[in-house]
Structures
1.
Amino acid sequence: MKSAVIVFPGSNCDRDLAVAIEQVAGRKPAMVWHKEADLPEGTDFIGVPGGFSYGDYLRSGAMAARSPIMRAVKDAAGRGVPLIGICNGFQVLTEAGLLPGALMRNAKLSFVCRPVKLRVENSQSLFTSHYDSGEAITFPVAHHDGNYQADPEALARLEGEGRVAFRYLEQVNGSARDIAGILNDAGNVLGLMPHPERVIEPAHGGTDGRRLFEGLFETVAA
Amino acid sequence: MKARVFITLKPGVLDPQGKAIHHALDGLGFKGVNDVRAGKMIELDLADGTNDAEIEDMCRKLLANTVIENFRIERLENA
């Protein structure tokens, strides 16, 4: 399996994501700088990490979404290559038009940084096959702009098509319908605010995130 | 020539920043403020002859996120 982690100026979870990928897949991902025009040949999984790309200038993820590498990321996603955007990565994917909706300032204006309970809403996806549907899991969140909003039609579509992958089981940021993570219509792109890469081994205080990568890599490697 | 782009949240989109400003104004004793909506203004210094369509394109492609924001362009002809 050949994975790639995209690195923007201001990314700060790129290393966490790389370590998680290596631990589960047994192979280091390529770290791809945002100014590159192409992904390494044969890339079959792409991660867009958390952080504060471009200092959150203009809007969170707005500048990163227009950086040179994103053209290649969009092309790859269009060909069905699995793509995950975590936290700032989720913001980048919505800004790039790869996922619907937008992530706005948390409803209570404060930065939220703590473990939160989530429900796996769809265990049939590429990213959730090692979870049970309806299972409660805990991932940490650390964000200021995690308040997911979309127009009523888009929300109805996400729900109707089973594209809400994860939902908060507690008040976190004011997201519409407590949405924590969504899939694109083809099912190969996942964006989520919580950090699965931060709960990989027992020393992290939990291992609920590990199964996301295990399930995904099992399919990708097959 | 210069142009100003005013970016505002669409009506109905929750504006926590505006709400916090409203709350602070209340705290300072300003009565009669019904609502506050915060936005941003971007000033562009443009080559003469840049047409409206081009500025609008900039707004749609980058300056505004039209999922949640509206924009309005104001040209400053003599600036």
2.
Amino acid sequence: MSKMILKTEGDTHIIVTRRFAASPEAVYRAHTEPALLQKWLLGPEGWTMPVCVSELRPGGKIRFEWTDGKGRGFHQTGEYLELAPFRRIVHVARMHLPDPTPDNQVETRFEPDGDGTLMTLRMTLPDAATRTAMLASGMEHGMEASYARLERMS
Amino acid sequence: MTNLDAAFSALADPTRRAILARLALGEATVMELVEPFELTQPAISRHIKVLEGAGLILRRAEGTKRPCRLAPSAITAIDQWLAMLRQALAANYDRLDGVLAAMKPTT
């Protein structure tokens, strides 16, 4: 199984890399088509994404809504800035917890790597304090979901 | 040794996380913390008490002021938090492996 690597770069970037045993086309589609996104972009077990809007064009809207099925939920909104099919996506994302987090600009690249694909996610936050806050507070819904799970355990 | 439950409980509040993020940049007095948060001084003081009780921040006396700074254990707690993030992200990508395998044309 491939290992995900997450690291910081400079003052404002977060880099995530991961290799997949599938073509760049398949990985790109899985990152942009709602029916596929709803199968994996979920965080911990038990969470689902009942609403998934992904308008595949520059300026197109992104809206993901997650729920744990027990009344907890939150959502992310954003826009696509650039789409180079099967190679590169640039989008802006903000989480609503419920106040919107500062804009996170995300560049996702998909490069052929042998018979698979190397994905590189590069997040750019407005400033160092925002990145610190993001890492401290959990930049992904998974963090909030994990916290919700922790709460249920206590 | 910080009690991780107390630390995570303290980290559950967005204002307290923001206070920690501010303190990650350097020491600050309560008055300096009140400014960016649009909260009253008593409200900020309550949050600081929780963070102090969880061992996430330390305060020193300087005349009548008691500046706050991040405790070394806060870094550990934030690292733990980051480890949870890694896990959630990694779980997503492990699931994506399955989705990609299912997308392949079967013969």
